[in-house]
Each structure stands twice: as structure tokens, then as C-alpha cells.
Write a structure and sequence with these properties.
The protein is an alpha/beta fold. It is built from 12 helices and 8 strands. Helix 8 links the parallel strand 7 and strand 8. The longest helix is centred in the C-terminal third of the chain and has 19 residues.
């Protein structure tokens, strides 16, 4: 882990605020970006946590524009570009870079199950068509595919492929990624599973992408600072605390349900409403009350 890399540190996959009628809540977007930027945390819009697949293309573009404007160069802004239509992903990459995003984060199209060569060819095509930095996003939970490290290694040679966000929740994968890519000066590796943050940092990962950063930005800022200082006792202590925050929204829930619970936790903090877009369903009043109580018990509200 190097403090000199441009792409490093905590990159928060921001929840996307909506109104009760399904419109982008622009005031809430600005409020949430401002809070992350004030804590010096990177802003990743249009990821899994941000419900990207459910958002109309025009709203995706507007979300990037607002994030870039509010961040105002204080922190890096990343935009997710995963769709099942590769030309649309390329168009989004170009549009988001034109809007000022610092890099795009490319998820594989997932309607068709691809072999290793097809995955590599697809990502190479997107990268060569993008006008700026691109991170590869490995997310087997939603795509049903794990991008082979040999393919990622070859893709890393492309001049604008600047890193990897790896959300494969496997100790073996973490070790393999670290052994292959840790310490490379022009290629950053981000851990996409927040619970593995401390282990990843110890193994040389450059950053972590925690959804709980939406509701606990200060501890994640402190986590990164402690890791940079080599204070591993503090890193482990913060990891334990942050795991309890993550459990508020994740424990006993599917991915879809956890996203609705995260939105509820954000609502409990007054950041946005608890509305989500279809096919997700917002928490009912009883479940929302439980999330509020859990947040209060842990000092998050």
C-alpha cells in the first residue's frame, strides 16, 4: 500500500437517493457527496450499492455530474458503467469522463455467461474505447463470473486500466490478488468486501470499498489513516467496530434486502428517504424502526 498512488484509500459506494416517485433526489445526492468529500473519502456512484442497474441512463449521467460538481476536486469520483449492452457501457464511460469523473468502474455484462477469453476481450474493448482511467470490477455475486487473474494481468498492461475492485469474498482470491498485484506502481487494488478490509490492507491492497461508509464515514477515514501509519492494532479495532455497523444492514439479509436496509439507515441519519427503485422494495415501517434502533444503539444517530 502506497500513499503516493492516485487511486487509493477508502472509496465509498454511495447509495443513490430517490424521491417517493422514483426521481433522483438531487439535493440528497449533493448532501451525501458533500459528507463523503468532507471526510476525504472517494465517491463511487453507480455501483451495486447505488442500485445502478435500476437507474435510467439520464439519471445516471446527472448523478455523475452532481457528484463531480460537489466533490470539486477534493476527492476522486468514480462512475460505474456495467450494463449488458457493451456499446452503452462505452457511451457511459465517455460521457462520465467528459463530465469530470476521475475513472470509471467496469462490470462485466452478465446476461451471457462468458469464458475467460470472452471476459478479457469484452473488458479490453471497453477499456480501449474509454477516454480515461478504468477500474475492472470483479463481482461474481451479481455477474455469476469470476474474472481470471491472468486476464486481469494482461488487461493491466493497457495504459488506462488503473486498477481492480475485487468483490469476490474468498480468502484464496484475496491472497492471489495480493501476490499478483500488490506494490505495482500504476495499478491499484481495492477490496470490495468491507469485512476483509484489514486483511487486505495488511496484504498490500491500496484501498477498500465499504458500503457502510455511507453511514460511518469517520471510522473509515480513521481506518485508512491507521493503516497508512502502520498502526495495525488500531486497524483491527476499527475493523471490529465497522463490522458491527455493516451487520445492521447485512445480517440475515439477501443482497437486495441489504441495499434497502442501507437506504433505511441513511434515512435514519437524515441523509435521504428510504425509497429504492424497483425491483427492490423499501423496508416496511417495523423493519425501518428496527434499523433506526440499531443505529441509535451504536451511536450512528
Amino acid at each position: 500500500m502506497s500513499s503516493l498512488k492516485r487511486h487509493r484509500g477508502v472509496m465509498v459506494p454511495m447509495a443513490t437517493p430517490f424521491t417517493s416517485t422514483g426521481q433522483l433526489d438531487e439535493a440528497a445526492v449533493a448532501r451525501m457527496v458533500e459528507r463523503l468529500a468532507a471526510h476525504r473519502l472517494g465517491v463511487f456512484v453507480l455501483g451495486t450499492t447505488g442500485e445502478a442497474p435500476s437507474i435510467p441512463f439520464a439519471d445516471r449521467q446527472r448523478l455523475v455530474e452532481i457528484a463531480v460538481k460537489v466533490a470539486a476536486g477534493r476527492v476522486l469520483v468514480y462512475g460505474g458503467i456495467g450494463t449488458d449492452c457493451v456499446p452503452d457501457s462505452i457511451t457511459m464511460a465517455r460521457d462520465y469522463h467528459r463530465a469530470g469523473a476521475d475513472a470509471v468502474v467496469a462490470l462485466l455484462p452478465s446476461y451471457f455467461q462468458l469464458n475467460a477469453a470472452e471476459m478479457e476481450s469484452c473488458l479490453a474493448h471497453i477499456a480501449r474505447s474509454a477516454p480515461g482511467g478504468l477500474l475492472i470490477y470483479n463481482m461474481p455475486l451479481t455477474t455469476g463470473m469470476s474474472i481470471p487473474l491472468d486476464a486481469i494481468d494482461r488487461l493491466s498492461a493497457l495504459p488506462n486500466v488503473v486498477g481492480l475492485k475485487d468483490s469476490e469474498n474468498s480468502p484464496e482470491r484475496l491472497e492471489a490478488v495480493a501476490q499478483r498485484f500488490a506494490g505495482r506502481p500504476n495499478f491499484s487494488i481495492f477490496m470490495g468486501v468491507a469485512a476483509n478490509g484489514a486483511r487486505a490492507y495488511r496484504r498490500g491492497f491500496d484501498g477498500v470499498v465499504p458500503s457502510s461508509g455511507n453511514i460511518a464515514p469517520a471510522p473509515w477515514r480513521d481506518f485508512d489513516a491507521a493503516a497508512l501509519a502502520g498502526d495495525w492494532d488500531q486497524v483491527e479495532a476499527l475493523q471490529t467496530q465497522l463490522d458491527t455497523f455493516g451487520a445492521i444492514v447485512q445480517k440475515g439479509r439477501s443482497l437486495a434486502q441489504s441495499l434497502a436496509a442501507l437506504k433505511a439507515a441513511c434515512a435514519a441519519q437524515g441523509l435521504c428517504t428510504r425509497d429504492v427503485l424497483p425491483p427492490l422494495v423499501p423496508l416496511d415501517a417495523a423493519a425501518f424502526a428496527t434499523v433506526q434502533q440499531d443505529c441509535a444503539a451504536l451511536g450512528l444517530v
